[in-house]
Write a structure and sequence with these properties.
By secondary structure, this protein is mostly helical. It is 73% helix and 1% strand.
Length: 474
Amino acid sequence: MNLIALTFGLALPAALAWTAMLLIEKDKPVLTPAERVVWALILGPAFFAFIAFLTHILGLTKLNLIGFIAPNLMVFFVLAVFAKRKGAFSAYKNRVRPGKIPGPVLSRPVMVFLGILGIWTAVKIIAGAIDLWSVPTYWDDSFNNWNMRGKLFYETERLELKIPNGNGYIQTAEGVSSYPPALPLIKTWLSTLRGGWQEPLVNGVHLVWFIGLIAAFYLYVLRKHSRSFSFLGVYMLVSLPLLLVHGMNPYAEVFLASHLFLTVISLLNAAEAQSSGESSAWLKLSAFSLGLLLFTKNESSVIYAPVILLLAAWITREKLKSGQIDRDALKRFIAIPIAILAAVGLPWLAFKWLNGLTFGNAKAVSNMGVGFSFPALKAIWFQLSSEPNWLFLPLLLPVILFFTGKNSFKYPQGLLTVFILICFAVQVSIFIIAIPLAREAVMQTGFNRGLLHLAPLALLLMILSARRLIWEPD
């Protein structure tokens, strides 16, 4: 029953996001059918939760079965009607299918070796999935934040900002309620559909984002390279120990990482697009994904969104310089993505502001003491150089970037390099100078989870740079 509830519980959100993306692309469908399905599975639940959140805080619905289904069905039909009128369905049917990238002819031993790697990758995912479905939630944010809030919303049918405990509170509004409610709302929806709170069900949705991230990674590399090369990238991604562990537990890091990955690769695709129509479609998709990214965790608005907007400005500047867009078309080129981002991203930020919720992870940024922490810096260096969380990624990526030299910073791949370096520098700085977070770095609880958001993008940069260095030297 839990598997059936999970399947049906994700079908409507996926259909909702699928239709929204089709309307966003309109007459310029840029996603392949496989990409569209994967992106819909990743973005759909957050979009579904956002609509339920918006109608609930406006006082229109409760967080019950009708409150989830009715507004989302209405939005789905409105999107479908507009997509039909704008010719999006016809454009999708008549889309130009991208050609396959030819790969090397593989010998039988190589095929056997890749098959063994594939089996081992599947074993790791299946074993982790069994653990995720069978072990109850019992630790830290997975227990006293995401699942606890989801169960509270389910029991009360309201978006409660305080978690009661007799005459007191386990959590005040300034605590875990400062985190976006997307993930708890998704768990509330699945439990409402099931008719009861089931830990395997509400935890099982995390597996969808992990598999979605793996698939999105594979499909992006496949745009540039062969199937065998793309599969090797997936094998390396799943082999990152901490990413695999988090992909199989009910924390929110892979939830955020999957949304961040889609947002950034949309920008990369926009930069590489050969027409203004395709560039505009990718920028609008990135804006849609970024708006939902703000609804995942607070790091999105504090760290990632400013850098993403900086990269979008860089892309716009390059498009103007190249003549792909002119100044007359500039307003429309940037206005629509901004409108999409505002429509999806601003309601949660406004809600936080109006309710006095903090803009840090349960710790107000404005109240953090500041001071340099050498123990935190030492702990960060130890985690990067001596622990196996990321295997050889922290060593290989800087080495490869050094040998690729200035090519690493050239447009368009430089977008990815700049994004990772800025976000990494910001995270290191925060954990070194913010006293409460410095303690987390020393205790090894926060810093590596921040790196987990960047790990798929960092691995992607390493793969693309290494292939260019070895097979496409200047």
